[in-house]
Design brief:
- Chains A, B: Pfam families: NUDIX, WHD_NrtR.
- Chains A, B: This is NUDIX domain-containing protein.
- The structure is a homodimer of 313-residue chains.
- Chain A is an alpha+beta fold.
- Chain A has a domain of 61 residues: Arc Repressor Mutant, subunit A.
- In chain A, 24% of the residues lie in helices and 38% in strands.
- In chain A, the strands form 2 sheets. In chain A, strands 2, 3, 4, 5, 6, 7, 8, 9, 10 and 11 form a 10-stranded mixed β-sheet that branches. In chain A, strands 12-14-13 form a 3-stranded antiparallel β-sheet.
- The longest helix of chain A has 18 residues.
- The radius of gyration of chain A is 24 Å and the shape is globular.
- The two termini of chain A are 23 Å apart.
- In chain A, 38% of the residues are buried.
- At the A-B interface, strand 1, helix 1, helix 2, helix 3 and strand 6 of A face strand 1, helix 1, helix 2, helix 3 and strand 6 of B.
- The structure holds a DNA duplex (27 and 27 nucleotides).
Chain lengths: 313, 313
DNA sequence: CAAATAGTGTCTATAAGACAATATCTC
DNA sequence: GAGATATTGTCTTATAGACACTATTTG
C-alpha cells in the first residue's frame, strides 16, 4: 500500500558516515548529540475516505435497484467539532508508517483489510486544527458493498455510511494582470437517514502564462469537521478522473457482476449517463463472461462477468 | 499552489463549540487544557523536485542542439549522508503551511517564484531518516530554462543541475496465492560534469482479484541521500503521465518556441520518438503562431509559437 | 401482452499512426 | 548542391458517439 522502505546498505554510504563534518564529528557522533526536541514539530494524522456503492431500496420489482456512492463518516465525541462528523482518521504513531496508520484506521472503522487504498493528498495549512498544528495525509479506499464487514460497520459505534452527492455551484473567470483566475465552487452533500451534512469548496486555478498552481479553500461547512469537506471534494475528483483511465472501478464491484451494474457504477461516479453499446465495447477486454445469469429480475436476465486483471492479459 | 485554507465561520460551528463533552467542558475549556506535548511527534519536511530542460553543447552547426531533462540537487554539508546529494528541502516551520515551505525551498535554491508547482506524494516510512522520525512531502516544480535565475543557481553554493536519465531494468511477475505480484525495477542516473549519482527503485504492485496497492522501495542508492531516489522516480512517473493529458509541458518552454523544440521536450520526457505530423495536429489547438521565425540555424527556419492557455479558448 | 432490461449491428465522426512529398534555409 | 530541419498532404486504422433493432424474462 505504498509503503516506502529505505535500504541504506550501500557500500559508500558507510564511507559517508565516517566522514567528519564541520565540527569534526562522524555520523554516529552527530546522531548521539542530535536533539530531537530542538524544534517544535507538527502533529501528523492519516485520514481515510472510504467509498462504496450501496443499493437504494426499490419499490418497483421490475426496475433495477438504484445505486449510489457512499462515504464512511464518524461522529466526533470530543472537542473540537464535538458532535460533527469527520473522516475516520487519527494521529500517526512514532512506530508506524503513514500507510500503516491509514490501514489501521480503515481496519478499525470497517473491519476491512487488504482492499484497494491509495494516498491522495497532504493538507498542511497552518490553522487547519484549532488544537495545534496538524498536517493530515488523506487516503482513499474502495470497498465492494457485498463484503460482510461493510454491513457490520453500519451499526458499530458512531461510524455511518453517508450517501454522497456533489455538484458544481458556479464557475467564474476573473481577469488579473498577466493572466486570469478560474474559480469553481463545488458543493458536497452527505445524507444518512435524517442526518444531512453539506459543505462548499472553492478551487482556484491561477494562470500567468501557464497554469501556476491551484488553491483549495472551504467556503462553508455544515456538520463536517475540520477541512474534511475539501478532502472529500478532492477525493471525488481523484476517483472521477482515475475511473476513466484505470480499472479502479472494479474495486467497487463484487466478484461477479453484470455489465449493467458496472455501467451504473461508472455513471454514478462520473455523474453522467453512458451509452450501453460503447460501454460494452470498451469493457469487453477487461471482463470475462461466466455461464451464470441473474434471475427473478422481472425482466430479461443478465449475464454475469468477472474482472480480468491487467496482469492476466 | 494548493494551499488549503479553512474557514470555520459557520453558524452551527459556534453551537458545536458550546457543547459540553464527556468531562463537561466546552471547546474553549478543552483547548485550554490541551497538552501539545502529550504525544511524541514526527518532524515534517517539504522536498522539491525542480525539473528543467537544458541544451547540450552541439558541435555540428547544422544539427539542432540536443536537449535533456535536468534536476536540481544539493550537496549535503551535514550528517547524515554528509557529502551525498539530496533534493532541496527542509523542515516545515510551525508558522508556515506545507506549500509555503515548499515554495520557500524553491525560492532559496533557484531564486524562482510563481512557477508551476504541484504536490507529489508524502513519504512516511518509519526509518527514512536516521536522525529521528521524519515524514516528507515531495513537490514538483517546472522551470523554463531561459529564466535568468536558473542559470544563476548553477554557480550558487552547493546546488547543481544534474542531467537526469532513467530506464527500466527488469519487470517480473510473481504468482502468489489468489493473485500475483508485479515488480518493476527502475534505475535513475544523475550526471553533473564528472559527478555521477545513481540509484535503483522497485515498484511492487500486488493484485488479489484487483489491484490492492503499490509499494515502493529503494534497492540501492549511490550518492543520493535518504530515500530521494524513489522521490525522483515517482516524480518522473508523474511528469511522464501528466504530460500526456495536461498542458504541463509548456511550463518547461520559454514564451516563444518552435514546434520542433516542443516535440523534443515531449520526446525527452516520454522517452520515445514521436511522429511530427501527428504531434503538430495534436498541438495545433494549444498554440498560437507568431510572425517570427528562428534564423541562422543552418537549415530551414522554423516558425515560433506561443502557448494558448486553456482559459483563453 | 406489457414492462423492463439485456444485448447486437451498423453508420458516422473524429482522432491517431504511418509515411511520402515538398519547402527553405546555410555553408 | 548538400545537409539539415520544417511543414503539409493523404491514406489507413482504431476508437467513440448515436441510434435502431432484436432478445428474454416475469406478472
Amino acid at each position: 500500500m505504498g509503503e516506502k522502505d529505505h535500504d541504506s546498505s550501500s557500500s559508500s554510504f558507510k564511507e559517508a558516515a565516517q566522514r567528519l563534518d564541520h565540527r569534526g564529528w562522524n555520523e554516529q557522533q552527530y546522531l548521539e548529540q542530535y536533539d530531537v526536541s530542538e524544534f517544535e514539530r507538527p502533529s501528523v494524522t492519516a485520514d481515510m475516505l472510504i467509498f462504496t456503492i450501496l443499493d437504494e431500496q426499490q419499490d418497483n420489482y421490475r426496475k433495477l435497484p438504484e445505486k449510489s456512492l457512499h462515504l464512511m463518516m464518524v461522529q466526533r465525541g470530543e472537542h473540537p467539532y464535538l458532535g460533527w462528523w469527520a473522516l475516520p482518521g487519527g494521529f500517526v504513531a512514532m512506530n508506524e508508517s503513514l500507510d500503516e496508520a491509514a490501514a489501521r484506521e480503515l481496519h478499525s472503522e470497517t473491519g476491512l483489510d487488504g482492499i484497494y487504498m491509495e494516498q491522495l493528498y497532504t493538507w498542511g495549512a497552518v490553522d487547519r486544527d484549532p488544537r495545534t498544528r496538524v498536517i493530515s495525509t488523506a487516503y482513499m479506499a474502495l470497498a465492494d458493498s457485498t463484503r460482510q464487514q461493510i454491513q457490520a460497520g453500519d451499526d458499530a459505534q458512531d461510524a455511518r455510511w453517508f450517501k454522497l452527492g456533489y455538484r458544481v455551484l458556479q464557475e467564474k473567470k476573473v481577469h488579473i494582470e498577466g493572466g486570469c483566475r478560474l474559480e469553481r465552487d463545488m458543493q458536497v452533500e452527505l445524507v444518512h437517514q435524517d442526518i444531512r451534512l453539506s459543505g462548499t469548496v472553492r478551487v482556484t486555478r491561477t494562470y500567468r502564462g501557464t497554469l501556476n498552481g491551484e488553491q483549495w479553500q472551504v467556503l462553508s461547512s455544515d456538520g463536517i469537521a475540520f477541512d474534511h469537506v475539501q478532502m472529500i471534494a478532492y477525493g471525488l475528483e481523484r476517483l472521477r478522473s482515475k475511473i476513466e483511465y484505470t480499472d479502479i472501478a472494479f474495486n467497487l464491484m463484487p466478484p461477479l457482476f453484470t455489465l449493467s451494474a458496472l455501467q451504473q457504477v461508472y455513471e454514478i461516479v462520473l455523474g453522467k449517463e453512458l451509452l450501453a453499446p460503447a460501454f460494452r465495447r470498451k469493457m469487453a477486454p477487461r471482463v470475462i463472461a461466466t455461464n451464470e445469469y441473474t434471475k427473478d429480475a422481472g425482466h430479461r436476465p443478465s449475464q454475469l462477468y468477472r474482472y480480468r486483471p491487467e496482469w492476466e492479459v
